Here is the input.
Amino acid sequence: MRALLYRLRQKIKTRAKNKKIFVQAYAAFKKTGTTSTEGYTALLDLYCSSNGKFNEKIHKEIIVSNPPKKITDSVNGIIGKISPADFTNINTILNKDGYYNFDKKVNPELVSKIYNYALKANTVTAPLYDKKIVFDPKNPISEIYRFEQNDLINNTDIQQLIMDPVLINVARNYLGCEPIFDFPAMWWSTAFLKDASSEAAQLYHFDLDRIKWLKIFIYLNDVTSENGPHRLIKSSHLPGAKPQELLNRGYARIPDEDILKHYKPDDFLVVIGDAGSMFAEDTKCWHKGTPLKSGNRLVLEFEYTSSLFGANYPKFEVKNISDEFKQFCINNPIYASNFTFKN
Ligand SMILES: [Fe+2]
Here is the structure.
């Protein structure tokens, strides 16, 4: 009993200390745009010790000064026309499940343009991180090939998607504020390793770069049970929904056998879909990519956030820019606040 009380007191003390560090780090971030290492570590600890409640509370405080634009008409975008009622439905499901699978697909022409770019563009991969290479589907040398984010930002087809008003409105509704475009990511996954790779995020984990965010994933080739479908645990993004026993491991990757004990079989979702399929996820949900049995998988991912507090990444340098994208960024300074422009 005495030991239990002692542990409880220690926990309360640590949480109070972390809150103080966070408040100081957030105040400094507002002035400098940079997050201190201690501030980010405090955020991670507070997420785990409060089972996500801390992030929700802070997010609500942050968005007060950044109210969302009111969109009352239908919006036309890469998946066609979405009505206000559709947006409400998407947001309700996203809040409940942490996941929404769009029934409409991304324009096939755009998908094939980006797919063809991915076959020719340089990637970085372990163990050759210092050397950019082109992915050879017939001769993979790694389980994952990542595209550099600055290269993606400078691709005008990807800029087209970044400007998509449907995606932005989904993020706006979910975050309850004007979203910031945080980053694009794109990568090939291969069957090079047959076992789950931590490097390729093939063990269950949650993301925590920011206080609150939303990710959009677009499959750029057909994804079946063979070539590494995305998996997630429905509703595990909700505050209080993660087993404390697992959160006590911190910001860690969790073996399947440990996760399986805590959730019902129905909560485990596997996302299969043809090229152009798109889904949104709050990746506070436990999630992972399935190790591939054969073939390869090409995924494009965007992250939208309410604040850039958290992991420190350099701002993106946009050099190759369409006039439309330039104008769009001028008109949407909050959304484009993570971009810098050359010329
Ligand atoms: Fe992840």
Notes: Residues 2-32 form the longest helix (31 residues). The pocket of fe (ii) ion is lined by residues 201, 205, 207, 283, 287 (CB under 6 Å). The CA atoms of residues 258 and 319 lie 46 Å apart.
